[in-house]
Amino acid sequence: MTMSAAGPLAAPPVPLARASARLKQAGAPRVLVVMGVSGSGKSTLAQLLARRMGWPIVEGDELHPEANIAKMSAGIPLTDEDRAPWLEKIAEVARNWLSSGGCGIVTCSSLKRRYRDVITGGNPQVCFVYLKGRPEDIAPRLGQRTGHFMPSTMLTSQFDALEEPDDSEVLLELDVTASRSRLVEAAYETLSDLAVPGQPLK
């Protein structure tokens, strides 16, 4: 903590939403991929953000093959071979929105850089919205969740696999500890600031 003549100075507040250098360079995106480990609140945030922006939404978990769901339900981590067809389906969703001139939001854990590269296909109009948090921030949320095939015991393997996105990626980083309503507004304001003047997000 920094000291002053009057005593210790409080650290500057951490922003709720932070745009990467690459996102600022790319400008307002047309596809958002809400990412993070299981239990970080991807589905809830994506639904609220879709409502705020008026964009369609696809739940990425619904694109998993049945074999993947069976493995995860049994507490067995997926391999890259398991994930490949799932990631391609998510990439196809993004490509379809872009090719049709539309916009949209899809959820996907996107834990590794190579997974994210498959989804974007190198297109800077696809932005990852990363719910960033520590295991101790997310474990209580995961333990309270019901009706989902991912058991809470898999959180450790998710963090072990996680390669956090950095400034070289088209990224909007959100603080997972904040309320969903505050995060939605922070995300919307940050993305709106990147839009062309006179042309709101669409």
Overall average pLDDT: 88
- The SS-based structural class is alpha/beta
Per the principal axes of the C-alpha atoms, what is the gross shape? globular
Instruction: Give me the side-by-side strand order of the main sheet.
Output: 3-8-7-4-6-5
Let me know the number of strands: 8
Quaternary state of the chains? single chain
| Tally of helical runs | 8
Helix content: 40-55%
What radius of gyration results from the CA coordinates? 18 Å
How far apart lie the N and C ends?
Answer: 43 Å
- Low-confidence segments, given as residue ranges, are none
Can you summarize the main beta sheet?
Answer: 6 strands, mixed
Strand content: 5-15%
Order of helices and strands: EEEHEHEHHEHEHHEH
Entry summary:
This protein has 202 residues and is an alpha/beta fold. It has eight helices and eight strands.
Primary descriptors:
globular, 15% strand, 6-stranded mixed β-sheet, 202 residues, alpha/beta, two-stranded antiparallel sheet
Would you kindly provide a written description of the structure presented here, covering whatever features stand out?
The protein has 202 residues and is an alpha/beta fold. Helix content is 43%, strand content 15%. It is built from eight helices and eight strands; from the N terminus they run βββαβαβααβαβααβα. Strand 1 (3-4) and strand 2 (7-8) form a beta hairpin. Helix 2 (42-53) packs across helix 8 and helix 4 runs parallel beside helix 5 (113-120). The protein is globular, with a radius of gyration of 18 Å.
